[in-house]
Design brief:
This protein has helices at 2-8, 21-28, 33-36, 41-59, 66-72. It is mainly alpha-helical. It has one domain (2-72). The longest helix has 19 residues, at 41-59.
Length: 73
């Protein structure tokens, strides 16, 4: 569904976060997933997405649109 929306609007997906029991376990322990399970698949995916956002934010020209982002992905 999200993939279809992005494709329809010329937007690139820069990542996905997998379902990961470590997130629920961190919640049960009232801890951040980044502290509780830093090597879990979901935390690694979130870090990857954050890195991709930082790269886009620092390399795209001001005012770039979804099409420019999609072309860079």
């Amino acid at each position: 569904m999200i993939e279809e929306f992005c494709a329809k609007h010329g937007m690139a997906m820069i990542g996905t976060v997998p379902q990961d029991e470590a997130l629920a376990e961190a919640e049960r322990h009232e801890r951040s997933p980044f502290d509780f399970a830093p090597d879990s698949p979901a935390v690694i995916a979130v870090r990857h997405i954050a890195d991709a956002i930082e790269t886009l934010a620092t390399t795209l020209p001001p005012g770039a649109t979804g099409a420019a982002v999609a072309a860079r992905a």
